[in-house]
Every structure is written in C-alpha cells, then in structure tokens.
Amino acid sequence: VLVERNLEEVEGGFCWRTDPRLKTPSAVRLTENQVTAFLRRIQAPVLLLAAEDSQYRDGFEKMIRERIQAIANIQVQYLPGGHHLHMENPEPVAEHIRAFFEGESTDEKS
What we know:
The protein has about 110 residues and is α+β, with helices and mostly antiparallel strands. The chain has helices spanning about 1-5, 30-40, 60-70, 85-90, 90-100, and strands at about 5-10, 15, 45-50, 75-80.
C-alpha cells in the first residue's frame, strides 16, 4: 500500500514522493496539561494498539504512560511490530479490533 501510494513514475523509472505537509509542524500547540484535560474528558471506550518496536516509543515512555492513565476506559495492547503495525502485523491488529467491538477485553494497561 505504501509503495503504491508513494511511488511516482518518472522518465526512466520510478522515484519516491512525499507529502511536504508531513514535515511541517502542526499549527496547533497544546501544553501537556491541556492534552491531559482533553484525555480525561473522553467517555467512550478506547482501544490503543501500540507497536512494541516503534521508533516513536523511545524517550516518550513516561508521557505515554501518563496519557494512558488519563483515559478512564482504555484498553492497551502492545503488539510486535513497528510504526506501520497495521500493515506489518494485520491479523492480530484486526483480531484485537474485533474483540474490542464485541466487548471482549485484552487489556495490558501500563
């Protein structure tokens, strides 16, 4: 999927293309207190499927843990994989989503 979406045919072959918006910082800036306030107001059940090997996990464990704790009704599951977990490991991702919507708990909250 990523290859199809990010390849561009050029004379003599192909080249990678990117969306420059992905490299632009968000105009929305929230403090950690503001983020936590938003998270505490979530009333719906939440499923967080997180990649065990995500490059974005290193250095953010404390912040992630605090944000998870701010959500009252959250199920957390860490699965093998990286940033593109849903493409690297689709079967377990789909199974956890199915179980979540059917009301089954697979929580590993941390």
